[in-house]
């Protein structure tokens, strides 16, 4: 494979491009464009940005991803969770609606893009592993709840604010007397329409003999119908004059290309949030991409995906956009609509560009309540209460990390929430592995097998202690090993030999090596032999490069049985 | 065992106390007292505190540890590294010598004591596992260098300051013209004397037929001789008038008992440093205690040690002292001198109390250079360059954590140093385990063994892929597993079955479970069966409690051979 095509996957799929693939890609692009228009406007509103910024973030980033991304069918653009994180990060710096707010959002996209590309080049994709599944799942559920609660004010037509659930609820409670009935009618109507179509339209269409795939597409176009109908209603009934908040004039045309003046102070403030957005966006995107790639036995390369997403975010920053990532719903639509190559993304970008050029005047009368309803319906599908139950049933410590993520996200905001979840899951992981399973073993009579003395009737001797260690040895558990062996030795007065059975030890780090030396040293002082058995090849290779085997007062045996035969009292 | 004696180990050893043990303990106490007097004064100076504070920290804390500690022979009191950390933490709040400085040091002792007790009660001793051996070793080496460099100004008799190596060196370089010759003569003389006695005195005494243990004791008393001789010289030659800095008047008597007025602000500022001091002190102390206990086949309980050390620090805070912990050198002396029980600590405390009552007037003429030389000789034994070499040879990633700890400690101070080391070792651990060893295996001909296809001549089939996973599956490596399996499957077009051989998988957390479900789901979509073999009992028990086995499109086999026989094409 040529080096260049490794970095520009477009050179691979571009070579085989033909008319058949073009047709598939074009069809998918039309469908995704129709879905993306209301979504882009809505997510920009969620991020506290002017609606056109959502459109801008759906043009150049898609082209950039098409050149550098490794997924054939991932659809990038503004997504709900990243929009919420943008609002939270930028809201701490500038007031929504101010010029500084937009500049900060652009800076966030650029920073996040540069970070993603750097992580890709230095192959730091493993950093995403810090986010365990329960933490991500809890974070997305909590974000969905926060977003939905935050949009309620648009449905009710009241002012409101707040980045946390208590603040949002308090703010709404204070305004409950000022609800705008016309706004509520629009908002509740669209909500009901979207929920019903999402739940029943496809089934009804299929029952009326519409083919499944077409029915699915029609159902997914429901938001655009809601947009069209409520624009018509707003104009016909002059809802703007009745206090219904409308989207208002959207600048017509394509975004300017360039970088606004950015202060170092601003960039320094945004480094932390940009990092969190990058990681969360990457994790979300890569899991979607992987799921879709597997369906067609294709592959994606996570470290190369970082570069693709980074390029998309830099493109967003260069064209007055804000942070983007691969979205789940739109990627599935793209895939199901038959997209074959990233060219579908380029066609979608062209579609959105046409919308920015020609459709924006039509959108001035769009009620904000319609967009809010679109967001609420989209994000409530992110709330996964079943996952909470499943994690609780499977593992209490995973559940603790998940619960902490949800509570801190709801109560103190998205940034603290994700950090709390990551720290707690690391802590719990270290806690778990810091006390590895260590079993005293004995010989199963008349066999060469050695099993836990507490579970099996086995033969042991008061002079020989055989200990099986069921975990790799590293700094978090090496001291525990010292403690346990000290305890086991202290209670056996006739002891002459200790055998460590290492069949499940995949690695020994420098801390654990030092602990083993310490154990050997202490046992030597009281005249007890330390022996190893069943040491794995790679572990043995490492040990051979040290002084340990020379200091070891006992021997290394290939098998536990051999050790036992040799050391048992005659 | 009665619950009370679990919390007050004194009830265990106190019952068997007799005249023979009393004699041993008294002798040890006399020797440790002689060693502790100059050390206490010196370490108080290192911490930036008045000399009497060092004595105070060597009275009540020893009594408290004797009641609550589980080690029979650990000697607690001021130690070098903790004194340096105290100076660093308190120096950020108040000027050395001010009343606020002493209050902050007392607050640090109280906070650290409360934290240690709380960690003991909640059994959080595992937190110390965050400090890997290479990080501790690097931290202690760097601290030793920092301390020695910082004491040079007392040897040279120049003013100076700085918490980092560059700052100390710059500060000394600026003062090099102002060296006080009389001070340098004392300092260099004592340094040479202490180095020579430490290196050669014991050997010379033994050659002169002095018994080994006695020779050892005499050699260890060298610092007290240096103290006596330089006091006499200072008085005879009126060195104070020649610009030699003397210790000056030390208040005579015992410390007052009580808590100074502490502001919440002060406590809040000190929480971080107090935590680091607690952890570092605990790790140092517990490793000494464990080494000594093992020599007599005794045991210590790390979580109970936390309570003992916590009680000692609270006692230090209540009696105008500063943070203490178990010291290596003094504990070894105590042990070698024959201490049998913690009563030796109580007798040592009585000895130091007598010194505070009656000896302090004699110490007024003690040159500070003598104390500085004592410190330098003591801490240079902490610098372990051999450990750096050994770690480098054994593991590059452990070495990276160690080097970062040393460089950051020297360049940015002790607190950042230890934090940098801990974070880097966590990161590297996650990085290592995030890419577990995964081997494609095949059958060794005519056996039931399955080995790595890359290392052995084995039989495989294009329709069956057997993968052995050599690590427990958890959030940090579950995504890697998805990637690897996706890659292995994508390159095999005839594939019908994947077998995961789980013989080395000791645990599967919720993230890994979800990844397995995802893998199963993706393989199902392309018509490939997923099977497991050699799943360990406890892992299987957990899996049985979930839906996973019901969703699994293949089977779970007891042995890899059984799986292979069953799935191989007929």
If you had to describe this structure to a student in words, what would you say it looks like?
Two copies of one chain form a homodimer. The first copy, chain A, is mostly helical and 570 residues long. Chain A folds into two domains: 18-426, no CATH class; 438-567, STAS domain (Transcription Regulator spoIIAA). Chain A is 64% helix and 5% strand. The first copy, chain A, is built from 25 helices and eight strands. Chain A has helices at residues 3-7, 10-15, 19-46, 51-56, 60-68, 80-91, 99-121, 133-156, 165-174, 181-207, 212-220, 222-236, 264-295, 302-318, 328-336, 343-359, 368-380, 385-394, 396-412, 414-434, 475-490, 510-525, 537-544, 548-551, 560-567, and strands spanning 76-77, 325-326, 438-443, 450-452, 464-469, 497-501, 529-533, 556-557. In chain A, strands 4-3-5-6-7-8 form a six-stranded mixed β-sheet. Chain A has a two-stranded antiparallel sheet with strand order 1-2. In chain A, helix 21 links the parallel strand 5 (464-469) and strand 6 (497-501). In chain A, helix 5 (60-68) runs antiparallel to helix 16 (343-359) and helix 20 packs parallel to helix 21 (475-490). Chain A is elongated and about 100 Å long. Chain A starts with a helix and ends with a helix. Chains A and B meet through helix 8, helix 13, helix 18, helix 19 and helix 20 of A and helix 8, helix 13, helix 18, helix 19 and helix 20 of B. Chains A, B: Residues 454-553 form the STAS domain. Chains A, B: This is Sulfate permease, SulP family.
């Amino acid at each position: 494979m040529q080096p260049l095509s490794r970095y520009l996957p477009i050179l691979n799929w571009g070579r085989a491009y033909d008319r058949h693939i073009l047709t598939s890609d074009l069809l998918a692009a039309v469908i995704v464009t129709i879905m993306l228009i209301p979504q882009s406007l809505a997510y920009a509103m969620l991020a506290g940005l002017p609606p056109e910024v959502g459109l801008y973030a759906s043009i150049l980033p898609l082209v950039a991803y098409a050149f550098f991304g490794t997924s054939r069918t991932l659809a990038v653009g503004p997504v709900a969770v990243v929009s919420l994180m943008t609002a939270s990060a930028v809201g701490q710096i500038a007031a929504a609606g101010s010029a500084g707010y937009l500049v900060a959002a652009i800076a966030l996209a650029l920073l996040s893009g540069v970070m993603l590309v750097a992580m890709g080049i230095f192959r730091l994709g493993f950093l995403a592993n810090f986010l365990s599944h329960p933490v991500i799942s809890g974070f997305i559920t909590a974000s969905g709840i926060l977003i939905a609660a935050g949009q309620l004010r648009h449905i009710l037509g009241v002012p409101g604010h707040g980045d946390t659930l208590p603040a949002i609820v308090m703010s709404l409670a204070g305004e409950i007397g000022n609800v705008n009935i016309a706004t509520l009618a629009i908002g509740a109507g669209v909500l009901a329409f979207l929920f019903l179509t999402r739940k029943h339209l496809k089934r009804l269409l299929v029952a009326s003999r519409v083919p499944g795939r077409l029915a699915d597409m029609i159902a997914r176009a429901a938001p655009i119908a809601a947009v069209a109908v409520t624009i018509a209603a707003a104009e016909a009934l002059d809802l703007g004059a009745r206090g219904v908040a409308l989207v208002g004039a959207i600048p017509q045309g394509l975004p300017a290309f360039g970088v606004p003046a950015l202060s170092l102070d601003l960039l320094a403030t945004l480094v932390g949030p940009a990092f969190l957005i990058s990681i969360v966006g990457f994790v979300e995107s890569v899991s979607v991409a992987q799921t879709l790639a597997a369906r067609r036995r294709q592959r994606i390369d996570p470290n190369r995906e970082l570069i693709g997403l980074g390029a998309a975010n830099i493109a967003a920053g260069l064209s007055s956009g804000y942070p983007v990532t691969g979205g789940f719903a739109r990627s599935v639509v793209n895939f199901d609509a038959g997209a074959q190559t990233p060219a579908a993304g380029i066609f979608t970008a062209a579609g959105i560009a046409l919308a920015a050029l020609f459709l924006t005047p039509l959108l001035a009368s769009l009620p904000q309540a319609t967009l809010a309803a679109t967001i609420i319906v989209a994000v409530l599908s992110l709330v996964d209460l079943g996952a909470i139950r499943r994690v609780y049933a499977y593992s209490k410590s995973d559940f603790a990390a998940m619960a902490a993520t949800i509570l801190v996200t709801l109560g103190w905001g998205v940034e603290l929430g994700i950090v709390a979840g990551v720290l707690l899951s690391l802590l719990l992981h270290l806690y778990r592995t810091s006390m590895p399973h260590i079993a005293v073993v004995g010989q199963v009579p008349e066999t060469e097998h050695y099993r836990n003395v507490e579970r099996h009737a086995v033969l042991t001797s008061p002079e020989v202690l055989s200990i099986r260690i069921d975990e790799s040895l590293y700094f978090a558990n090496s001291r525990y090993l010292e403690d346990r062996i000290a305890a086991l030795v202290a209670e056996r007065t006739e002891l002459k030999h200790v055998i460590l059975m290492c069949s499940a030890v995949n690695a020994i780090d420098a801390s654990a090596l030092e602990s083993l030396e310490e154990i050997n040293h202490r046992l030597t002082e009281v005249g007890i032999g330390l022996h190893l058995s069943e040491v794995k090849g790679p572990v043995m290779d490492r040990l051979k490069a040290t002084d340990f085997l020379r200091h070891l007062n006992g021997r290394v045996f290939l098998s536990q049985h051999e050790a036992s035969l040799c050391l048992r009292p005659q």
